[in-house]
What we know:
The chain is an alpha/beta fold. It has 2 domains: 1-74, no CATH class; 80-92 and 104-164, no CATH class. Helices cover 38% and strands 12% of the residues. The protein is built from 6 helices and 5 strands. The strands form 2 sheets. The protein has a 3-stranded parallel sheet with strand order 2-1-3, with helices on one face. It has a two-stranded antiparallel ribbon with strand order 4-5. Helix 5 packs across helix 6. The longest helix has 24 residues, at 140-163. The radius of gyration is 17 Å and the shape is globular.
Amino acid sequence: MVGLPYRHFRSLVPVRTLATQDPRGVLRWFMPLIKVLYWLGGVIELPPEDQSDRSLPEKLRGLLVALKHGDVVMVFPEGEIHREREPPVGKFAPGVVYVHRRLGAPIVPIATWMSRQSWPRRHYIVQFASPVRIPDNLDQDTAAAWLQQQVLALYEGIRQREEG
């Protein structure tokens, strides 16, 4: 979000983010600081992973409440940081499909591209698609794959412009 041009950032404020309470690796040591940043940023926290017996509606309750109140929420549907360049996004979790179907909230696919130029002149591109609605005839897993394809199409458009 920090890399967005001012007019885009202002049009999205307040943007809340859906985030984990269970960071992996070194981030675990910084969780007290991360919790403060979550509070300052209005982050919606997912329940701890050790409560995996909870249903999808229970896990996403905070997200549903925020959307019902008119907040804009950024969701990373992969559920983790995807580090591979090919494909540029990983498999999408079905939670975003559940939220869309439950509330009818439009989804704005976003792709963030980072050039291969080295520091300090790295170039970033943030591409926003038009809001989409997931076709009703798709089950949750197929719908998640459909949504992933929408985001991959954005990346392909960026790649073609960068190479062309």
